[in-house]
């Protein structure tokens, strides 16, 4: 039985994660962390992770980048595996995650969806075959409450594609101030925000007289919750290191 602490336990994503865990018999929630400490789910919710008294096998985090330092301190001091589902980290924070993983196990990915991670692998294969003969554009769509743009998932997809391309690429976020032709060494990233869109990503490979598009559409937050809980169960008992969806898929 994997014992889980959920940070952001009373948030929208936290409640979906709680529901997913309730439907399984291989894990349970032993405590939550949230500024809203009301609890109606049979476990105590603390205002900060440093106050949690219960022992746990894994922490699942879907909160805010500003809380990263406290999470990493807890994970390092207790050696508790940490599953990070929060997005919007800057380069300095990503470096902190990487350094902390030398002391404790951390599962970090820009998107917990199995489908998105399959899409990244398909995009790499397409880029290997199409090479520089096709222009690459990535379009991501999210709800109007999302703060960061482009999404961490869009950047993850672009990074995956760059791994297999023969020439260095640059990311183009805004062409509106330019009056020049598109260059071959760029990947365009475009963000759309509106309504209650959960998450949609399109990778467009545009060649001469043909277009190939890879698309993924998340219809509910549950796809991310399922991935996070699967990751939590997988991380139970793991040693220090930085893990991601590749290890989980190949497990």
Describe the structure in your own words.
This protein has 251 residues and is α/β, with parallel strands linked by helices. The protein has seven helices and twelve strands. The strands form two sheets. The protein has a seven-stranded parallel beta sheet with strand order 3-2-1-4-5-6-12, with helices on both faces. It has a five-stranded mixed beta sheet with strand order 8-9-7-10-11, with helices on one face. Strand 1 (2-7), helix 1 (12-22) and strand 2 form a beta-alpha-beta unit. The longest helix has 17 residues, at 114-130. It starts with a strand and ends with a helix.
Task: Supply database-style keywords.
alpha/beta, 5-stranded mixed beta sheet, 7-stranded parallel beta sheet, elongated, 251 residues
- Average pLDDT reading: 93
Proportion of residues in β-strands: 25-35%
* Shape estimate: elongated
Strand order of the largest sheet: 3-2-1-4-5-6-12
Low-confidence stretches: none
Number of discrete helical segments? 7
Q: How many strands?
A: 12
Radius of gyration: 19 Å
Give a quick account of the main beta sheet: strands, pairing sense, barrel closure.
7 strands, parallel
Structural class: alpha/beta
**What letter string, H or E per element, gives the SSE order?**
EHEEEHEHEHEHEEEEHEH
């Amino acid at each position: 039985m994997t014992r889980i602490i959920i940070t952001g336990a009373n948030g929208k994503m936290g409640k979906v994660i709680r529901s997913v865990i309730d439907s399984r018999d291989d894990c349970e929630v032993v405590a939550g962390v949230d500024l809203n400490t009301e609890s109606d789910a049979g476990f105590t919710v603390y205002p900060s992770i440093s106050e949690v008294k219960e022992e746990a096998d894994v922490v699942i985090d879907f909160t805010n980048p500003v809380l990263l330092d406290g999470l990493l301190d807890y994970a390092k001091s207790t050696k508790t595996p940490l599953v990070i589902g929060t997005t919007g980290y800057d380069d300095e924070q990503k470096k902190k995650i990487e350094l902390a993983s030398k002391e404790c196990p951390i599962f970090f990915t820009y998107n917990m969806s199995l489908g998105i991670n399959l899409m990244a692998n398909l995009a790499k294969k397409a880029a290997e075959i199409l090479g520089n003969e096709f222009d690459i554009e990535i379009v991501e769509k999210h709800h109007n409450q999302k703060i960061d743009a482009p999404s961490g998932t869009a950047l993850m997809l672009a990074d995956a594609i760059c791994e297999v391309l023969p020439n260095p690429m640059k990311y183009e976020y805004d062409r509106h101030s330019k009056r020049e032709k598109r260059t071959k060494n760029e990947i365009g990233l475009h963000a759309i925000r509106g309504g209650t869109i959960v998450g949609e990503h399109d990778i467009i490979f545009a060649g001469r007289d043909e277009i190939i598009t890879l698309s993924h559409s998340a219809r509910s937050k549950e796809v991310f919750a399922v991935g996070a809980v699967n990751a939590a169960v997988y991380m139970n008992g793991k040693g220090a290191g930085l893990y991601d969806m590749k290890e989980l898929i190949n497990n």
